[in-house]
Amino acid sequence: MRNRADAEAWEEFVNVYTPLIRRVAKAHGMQDADANEIVQDVLLAILKAIPAYQQKEQVGSFRKWLTTIARNKAINRISRMPRENGRRDDSFDIGNMPAGLSQLDEAENEIEKQWRQQIFVLAAHEIRAQVQPLTWSAFWMSAVDDRSCESVAKELGMSLGSVYVARSRVLAKIRDWVRSYSAKWEGEAS
Does pTM surpass 0.90? Predict the structure, then answer.
């Protein structure tokens, strides 16, 4: 991503992080238009700041850097929002440090949670295309829908062992995909 001309890398970045940033903004009570503006603000800030980004040794440092930019843009947007009925909810205001810090921590945790969900969605989409439909169904029903392997085996007409194997293999593929994808973003400083 340091190369602004790398359209493929930027498109991938936008596809992964736009829904994440939007969900976090909406989770903090923003209307669609405000959430979309925060997405644009964050993406523009990243575009401007990425050449100066320095990869740190710790895992997740790119997401932490991204989170800091997203958080600062959200704070700026919230502080500029018009007061409703003459008041604005100042619990997120920087001037109210205890509540503000608490909500910033919550925002960071929410971004991490949303990132994990978004990466799972991408991984699931990729891996589903690589396995047989029956294998995918056994995985999804037992691991995601949290149904017992016995009931899944019975419903799909599979042996219990086959359900366990399907679940294990798909989970391993998803973990490998996520590890590789995360390393790509973290390792290259994107």
Answer: no
